[in-house]
Amino acid sequence: MSSNTSTRPNLRYGMSAIAALALSFALGAWNVSLVRAQSDGVAAGAASASAQPDQNGAADAAQNEKNQAAQEAHDAVDSAEQALDSATQERDQLESDGASQDQIDAANESIAQARAAKEAADQAAQAADDEAGK
After folding, report:
1. Radius of gyration of the chain (CA)
2. Residues 130, 68: contact at Cβ < 8 Å?
3. Burial of residue 76, with CB atoms counted within 10 A of its CB: 0-12 exposed, 13-18 middle, 19 or more buried
4. Could you tell me which residues come within 8 angstroms of residue 27 by beta carbon, excluding any fewer than 6 positions away?
5. pTM
6. Which of 12, 35, 97, 125 could be cross-linked to 65 through a Cys-Cys bond (beta carbons 3.0 to 4.6 Å apart)?
7. Is 56 exposed, middle or buried (0-12, 13-18, 19+ CB in 10 A)?
8. Distance, CA of 118 to CA of 36 (rounded, Å)
9. Who's near 100: CB < 8 A, 6+ residues apart?
10. Which residue has the higher pLDDT, 127 or 56?
11. In the 8-state DSSP scheme, what is residue 98?
């Protein structure tokens, strides 16, 4: 009974962490596209040779934004990996405690969601790395 009491809040916490992670990916992707649109506008507006230093400054700022987005994406991967490890440890603990099959199934569902979130984080990090490399 005590493992039932401690499992549900942990599963809810894990689901909240996964939802927050997905939201941060969405916001990060949206932010990168805004930075790209802004940097395209700055480059198109600078037509004269006297604007060259401004173009370099804007390009540096855009590159810094891309690098920051890539770093945040890698941080999200680390966070997703920790959530997956935590969900796996929770399931293993339930199995060793002899928990009910329903609890183990719920833990397995949490693992599947955490694994999907990690895969999405890996893809977002790869896309951010590719964008920062341009």
Report:
1. 21
2. no
3. buried
4. none
5. 0.55
6. 35
7. exposed
8. 25
9. 4
10. 127
11. T
Write the pLDDT tens digit of every residue in 7-17: 555 555 666 66
- Which ranges in the chain belong to alpha helices (H)? 2-45, 52-97, 101-133
* Paired tokens of 4: 């039932």
Query: For residues 16 and 113, what is the distance between their CA atoms, to the nearest angstrom?
Result: 11
Q: Scanning the structure block, which residue is given the tokens 């596209």?
A: 33
Contact 51, 14 (CB under 8 A): no
- How far is Cα 114 from Cα 103, in angstroms, rounded to an integer? 16
Indicate the SS3 state at residue 134: coil
What six digits make up the tokens of 105? 């199934």
Domains and CATH numbers, the chain: 2-133 (1.20.58)
